[in-house]
Structure formats: structure tokens, C-alpha cells
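Handout, section B. The chain below has 215 residues.
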Amino acid sequence: MKKLFLAAAVLGAVVIGVMAFRPAAPSLVKAETNTPGDAPRFSKWTLDKVHSNVKFTVTHMVVSEVDGSFKSFDGTMEHTKPDYSDAKITFTVDVNSIDTDNENRDNHLKGEDFFNAAKYPQMKFESTSFTPLGNNKYKLVGNLTIRDVTKPVTFDVTYGGTINTQRGAKAGFKAKATINRFDFGLKWDRATETGGLVVGKEVEINVNAQLNEAK
């Protein structure tokens, strides 16, 4: 019997020793979504430019589309309500960073026929409202300035959620809008032989934004 108790004690000691030196499992971070019941607090978010992008699509020769992007941009979001309903959002884009994968076309877009980047090097958006619609959908309304023209624009926004990481909180949003380029002075309008525009008047804008909460 003594041998049995001794063997059990030795086995227990071995198990405890193994568990003591076993590597700890990695800590998993749970994605969190703010809810209206959370206490209000001021938060400021800055754009994670490496994990964000600004793209656009326009019809070309009536039958196809051309995609482009801007490589240099910045943005912030400030709010106190946990559902972001009082968020103030600003976004700027460097016009000279336009990229459609064609140098001649890019230079044309930077010229007087379109953006006139030499005189108006920056596009700017400032929000006037950010309205929750339910199911992580929002309506973002604000003033967009291109060249020397400022007009209201509405974006459809999808909130991807918020996650806490070792480097701080991160939030993700996708925003989509369609504008008429003629409204902003981008009026180059050469027609095709069939009467359609070489470059369509409507431009679809897509913004994928990952934000870092400022500490």
C-alpha cells in the first residue's frame, strides 16, 4: 500500500512539474462592438494608411470601366457616443497621388481638363452627420470639395466592427458613394462616334478605412 501511495505522489509531482513549464496559450482578443448602453467618452481615431485605400471607378467608352486609386490620403474621426452617431469625420486626398496604371492618363487627370492638381492639390471631405441605420449600416453625409467646388455628398457605410489589440483599439469601415464629376468642374466631355461620353460623368468612390484609436 505504501508503494501505491508513493507511486501516486511521484506521478502527481511529475504532472504538476510538466504543467508548470508548459507554454501559456496565446491570448485571443475578442472583437467588440460598441452598444448604446456604453458610457459616453471622447474618442479620437486616426487613419491606418497601410491598411486603408481610396479607389474609384468610371465608365470608359460607354462599354467598359477604368479603375483608379489615390496613394496618399489621411483622415480622422472624433466622437463621444458609443454608437458613433455624433462622429465628426474629416478626410483629405492628395490629387497628385492619382494612379490609373497609365502615366499619360494620370497626367491628363491632373491637368486643367480634370483636377488641375497644380492649383487644387487636395480634395477634402468634412462630415455633417453620421446616422446609424441598424445592422452595422450608416449614412454618412458631408461636404466634398474638389477643385474650388464644394457640394454635399452621401456615403453608404458598413461598420466592420472594433477589436482591441496589444497595440490599441482598431475599427473598420467601408464607404461608398457616386458623384457626378461635372458637378465639381471635371468637365472634359469628348464624345464617342455613337454619342456617348469617352469618360462617364458618374464616378463611383470606394473607401476602405481601418482606424486606430489615438492614445
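Note. The chain has one domain: 31-213. Compare this with the example in section A.
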